[in-house]
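Good morning,

Attaching, inline, the backbone tokens for the sequence recovery test we're adding to the shared suite. The designed sequence is right after.
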């Protein structure tokens, strides 16, 4: 019985050491700043680093808009499936689907324009 308790206590002490090492390793890592996320330059930032930062912000905004467009297409599809033959609900679902597709196409076109203008200005 004593061997059992020694085995258990050894296991807990090993686990405690692993947790301490994990906490110490986590404390050494640095949280990213906004400059790291948007990739802005340092104090010697010039026009190209400002443009890179703006391009990153625009890319994030367009990515979010694309996700919202996809969610709206799914929502419109669910509305259409759950209309159960009700013409007014089906018509609302069709309009929602059409405008969701139009919005997603506008976002895709905006993304292409950003890529084109970025290549043109470089």
């Amino acid at each position: 019985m004593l061997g059992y308790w020694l085995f258990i206590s050894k296991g807990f002490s090993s686990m405690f050491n692993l947790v301490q090492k994990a906490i110490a390793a986590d404390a050494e890592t640095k949280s990213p700043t906004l400059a790291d996320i948007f990739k802005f330059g340092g104090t010697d930032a010039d026009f190209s680093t400002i443009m890179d930062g703006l391009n990153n912000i625009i890319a994030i905004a367009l990515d979010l808009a694309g996700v919202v467009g996809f969610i709206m297409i799914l929502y419109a599809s669910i509305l259409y499936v759950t209309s159960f033959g009700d013409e007014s609900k089906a018509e609302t679902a069709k309009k929602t689907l059409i405008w969701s597709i139009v919005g997603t196409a506008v976002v895709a076109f905006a993304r292409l324009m950003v890529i084109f203008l970025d290549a043109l200005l470089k």
